[in-house]
Structures are given as structure tokens and as C-alpha cells.
Specification:
The chain is an alpha/beta fold and 396 residues long. It has 3 domains: 224 residues, 3-Layer(aba) Sandwich (Rossmann fold), CATH 3.40.50; 44 residues; 92 residues, no CATH class. 41% of the residues lie in helices and 17% in strands. The chain is built from 11 helices and 14 strands. Helix 3 links the parallel strand 3 and strand 4.
Length: 396
């Protein structure tokens, strides 16, 4: 079966970029989404393709999936939807969701991935390895992409081709949850012949949709209207804080309205409402903060959570260094040895800057399992000085 899948993918992979993908939910062709719809149905979820996305009609039981959108996805609407408790998937490698990705502090990039392992030695099929264990990625060590873009993100990647080149990024914004995928063709029928990709599709459905809920599939060209609801989180016992405060405020308002002749009660009700609102504001997640750390699977009992902090910071610094140097040189530096990096930087910025860049790259290019606070502080200072010379990274 795996050999047959490999042969089929080798035949079709060169056609995916040219054809753009049909991405029809009822299609059983190689570039359709019929198998994905089957997985949703098996999980008890209804997957429905929509040509018009009415944000005001999206309910708490809905998840919104953008798979190969050819109409721009509004970043502001997506932010408000997620902050209210929504769930979203953005699978795009051609640019229609760039504004929405920017709202999640993710940049879509294209370029060579020279040091990446390829599936069956096919240059069109790079393999992304699991870089963070989460509920989404548990038990799925790798994914196979097809002519993909890649991401640079503020949050840690879940799957990456190399440091600074992510295939999958997931995280939280407000009370909402999102998954960004740099290659929508991972989800087409042909690519789901691969066991790893099929397992990921199943996990993605179950991570964003519970039995009895719906997935609204937005693909190709579409129109949108309306504003997201201000509160999408369902009132369940697992999320009691916001619900309790809402109910408290409602009860206080009812009491104040009933106490038309009781001025003291009205004053007390107002004071209690102010206290409740203050506590509620403190409980609400910081607006605009995209967070990916919470998605990590639980660490073994013998490992303290504090052990993640410094290595994760070093990984962020490494990714930022790779991105800045790649943009400065006009080519990816992900697979370069320090000596080769020094040679290339010398051409553009001179030997002194090249020496500093090579030393910093030598200390950061491998994923650190442990790093001291003092050494990390020195590297951050050296990186800041280097960035001042080579210039700020591009925005987009």
C-alpha cells in the first residue's frame, strides 16, 4: 500500500502546483477533499463547504477552516473571532491568507529547503519533523508536504522542515485556538494515502471539532460578511470563570432593576458590579497576545517545567537569526555550516560582521537541550548588535 501511495504521489506531485488543487469536499479525485470529509464524519462532525462566510452566524459549535483560499482572509475579523473563543484552521501556501497570518504573528515565506529529507527522494515532497509534542501532533513524528511554502512565527512550530521553516504552527489568541498549515495539499485525497498525513488529518479534525459540532470549510473564492459574536466559548463546567462572572453581573443587574425604591441596594449592586468587572478583566487573556507554549504535551514528571524556558528562548533567537541572515543575503541559511555562512556574509557586510555572525550561528544552529542564563544573555546581546548592522527584517 505504501509503495502504491509513493508511486501515485510521484506521478501527481508535479501537477499539484500547476492545477492549484480542486479542493472540493465531495470529490474523490486525487486533489479533492472527499477523504477529509470521511474523517470528519467518522469523528461525528459535519463538514460543510460554504461560499459565503457570515461571521455573525458562526456559533460556538462551529470551527472555521480556510483550505486553499483564493479570496483574502480578513485578519481583523479572524482576530476578533479567535479572541471570542473561536477555532480556526488556515491552510494556505499562495498568499490569500497573508493578512490573517500576520494577525497571528506568522509570516509565509518561499525558498529552497536544501538540507531537508525528501520522501522517496522526490524533491517536491519535503518531510517536516515534529518539533513540539502537542495534543495535535502526539504519535505523529513527521508530515510529508508537496511543493510547500513555510512559516516564520512568533510561537514555536509543531512541525518544521528546519529551524525557522515551519510547516505547522498552532496556538491560542484570546480564548480561541488556531492551526496554521503552510501546505493545504497535505489534506487532499492523494496525500492522505500516506499514513502520517492521514493520522494528522484525523487529529486536526478531532482537535478542532467534537462530536455533534460542525466544520465550516471555506475554500477557493468566497465572500464574507458580518461581525463575529463577542462570546463563542460554550458555558461548560470546564471553563467556569467567565460564565460565573457573566451570571453574577446578570443577577446584579436584575437586582438593581428590582430595587427602584431601594437606593442602598442599587448602590451596593453597582459596587458589586464594578468588583465583578475588575475580576473578570483580570481573568480575560491579554488582548493581542499570541501564545503557543500552552499547546505542549505534559512533560515527564522528572522534568521541571522551568527547564523549557531558556532552551525555548534560544530556539526563538536561532530562528530570528536565521530569518534576518536569510533576508540579508537573499537566500536561506538554514543548512549552512558556520564557515560557509562567514564566507557569504563577508561578501555583503565585510569580514568583521561575518565573523560575529558565524560565531553566533555556531552557538545557535543546533537545537539546545540546555543553556545557561549567562550564555543566553551574551548571545542575545551579540544578536542585537548584529541585527543593528544587517538591518531590520522585512514586514509582511
Amino acid at each position: 500500500m505504501r509503495a502504491l501511495a509513493a508511486a501515485t504521489i510521484l506521478l501527481c506531485s508535479s501537477l499539484v502546483a500547476a492545477a492549484g488543487g480542486d479542493y472540493k469536499l465531495d470529490s474523490r479525485e486525487w486533489n479533492g477533499l472527499g477523504r477529509l470529509a470521511d474523517e470528519a464524519a467518522a469523528a461525528g462532525c459535519t463538514m460543510t463547504a460554504v461560499d459565503t462566510l457570515d461571521w455573525s452566524a458562526v456559533e460556538s459549535r462551529d470551527a472555521v477552516w480556510f483550505v486553499y483560499p483564493r479570496t483574502a482572509v480578513d485578519g481583523g475579523l479572524l482576530r476578533r473571532y479567535l479572541e471570542a473563543g473561536g477555532r480556526a484552521v488556515l491552510a494556505d501556501d499562495f498568499g490569500a491568507s497573508d493578512a490573517a497570518l500576520a494577525a497571528l504573528e506568522i509570516r509565509r515565506l518561499r525558498g529552497e529547503l536544501p538540507s531537508v529529507t525528501r520522501y522517496d527522494e522526490n524533491p517536491a515532497l519535503p518531510i517536516a519533523r515534529q518539533s513540539m509534542s502537542t495534543e495535535l501532533s502526539a504519535g505523529i513524528p513527521a508530515l510529508i508536504a508537496n511543493h510547500p511554502a513555510f512559516f516564520s512565527a512568533a510561537t514555536p512550530s509543531t512541525y518544521a522542515f528546519s529551524p525557522g521553516a515551519a510547516l505547522v504552527v498552532e496556538g491560542r489568541l484570546g480564548k480561541g485556538y488556531f492551526v496554521a498549515l503552510a501546505d493545504p495539499s497535505v489534506l487532499i485525497n492523494n496525500m492522505l494515502d500516506l499514513d502520517e498525513n492521514l493520522a494528522f488529518a484525523r487529529s486536526l479534525v478531532r482537535r478542532t471539532c467534537k462530536s455533534g459540532e460542525r466544520i465550516l470549510l471555506v475554500t477557493q473564492s468566497f465572500t464574507s460578511r458580518g461581525e463575529p459574536s463577542g462570546e463563542l466559548s460554550p458555558p461548560t463546567a470546564t471553563d467556569p470563570a467567565f460564565v460565573r462572572f457573566n451570571r453574577m453581573i446578570e443577577a446584579i443587574n436584575d437586582a438593581a432593576r428590582a430595587a427602584v425604591d431601594g437606593r442602598l441596594l442599587a448602590v451596593l449592586a453597582t459596587l458589586m458590579a464594578m468588583v465583578a468587572l475588575g475580576l473578570w478583566a483580570r481573568a480575560w487573556p491579554a488582548r493581542g497576545r499570541v501564545d503557543g507554549h500552552w499547546t505542549r504535551a505534559p512533560a515527564p514528571a522528572a522534568v521541571a517545567w522551568e527547564a523549557w524556558d531558556l532552551p525555548t528562548t534560544a530556539a526563538f533567537l536561532r530562528d530570528e537569526l536565521a530569518l534576518r541572515l536569510s533576508e540579508s543575503l537573499g537566500a536561506s541559511v538554514a543548512g549552512l555550516a558556520p564557515a560557509e555562512l562567514r564566507r557569504r556574509v563577508t561578501r555583503v557586510h565585510g569580514p568583521r560582521v561575518a565573523l560575529a555572525a558565524a560565531r553566533l550561528w555556531a552557538g545557535l544552529r543546533g537545537p539546545p537541550t540546555w543553556i545557561s542564563r549567562r550564555r543566553l544573555a551574551k548571545m542575545q546581546a551579540a544578536a542585537a548588535a548584529l541585527f543593528d548592522v544587517i538591518g531590520p527584517r522585512e514586514q509582511g
